[in-house]
Amino acid sequence: xxxxxxxxxxxxxxxxxxxxxxxxxxxxxxxxxxxxxxxxxxxxxxxxxxxxxxxxxxxxxxxxxxxxxxxxxxxxxxxxxxxxxxxxxxxxxxxxxxxxxxxxxxxxxxxxxxxxxxxxxxxxxxxxxxxxxxxxxxxxxxxxxxxxxxxxxxxxxxxxxxxxxxxxxxxxxxxxxxxxxxxxxxxxxxxxxxxxxxxxxxxxxxxxxxxxxxxxxxxxxxxxxxxxxxxxxxxxxxxxxxxxxxxxxxxxxxxxxxxxxxxxxxxxxxxxx
Length: 273
Ligand SMILES: [Zn+2]
What we know:
Layout: H1 2-10, E1 16-19, H2 21-26, H3 28-36, E2 40-43, H4 59-77, E3 83-84, H5 95-101, E4 106-107, E5 137-138, E6 153-154, E7 159-160, E8 162-163, H6 166-171, H7 173-190, H8 220-234, H9 242-254, H10 263-269
Parallel strand pairs: 1-2, 3-4, 4-6
Antiparallel strand pairs: 5-6, 7-8
Zinc ion binds at residues 44, 48, 87, 199.
Protein name: Polysaccharide deacetylase
Pfam families: Polysacc_deac_1
GO molecular function, one term: hydrolase activity, acting on carbon-nitrogen (but not peptide) bonds
């Protein structure tokens, strides 16, 4: 976190940090560090446990997790928390209603036109992303993937087949360089903001730690494809190696006049709220 906050200070970047209730409860001082630097504090649900994905939890449980984390973050920060990003971007259609009923106004979990080739968790459900709008939109109350007139604004993450996230940046640095030209072109054409997503732990070198490969699938073939290969790929450029890749990306947009702002500021500036 100090590394990340430092790079944001150097490049005059303000962003949204989405905290899980679990992490915020363990490290409330980190939430305060982020606020002190002028970033937005958003909710990342209760935890990253696979069973806490918003695409598998029943509606009432989704609401419980949202309300719990919002209150915890508001108690720590003393500020209203209105923005949400789902752990592993796993949202279900009814997550829109759950967010509205718990007082959230912004979601940024839909990666429109992302296609995971079924390698990520919840791969089949994520097919809904293929048809979601690319520009920010007011969602339907019935489906977070569709336009409607609910009070919830969706700010989709940048994606085109591959998601624009830290993992892609680390595993396929070459592809990410191509991606940024594509997203920059799209911004010039349509004004869509570039939305990038990275986890602070991607800058931590964990190579000395034993890595246990979780078994999320009982079928040996899918276990090999989904868990083993995925786990091996996920550690590439993890740690200090990720920092120069990130800086290069930031400089690309900085030199082209982009402003780096929290999702809440974007929605306010665009009068979407
Ligand atoms: Zn996360």
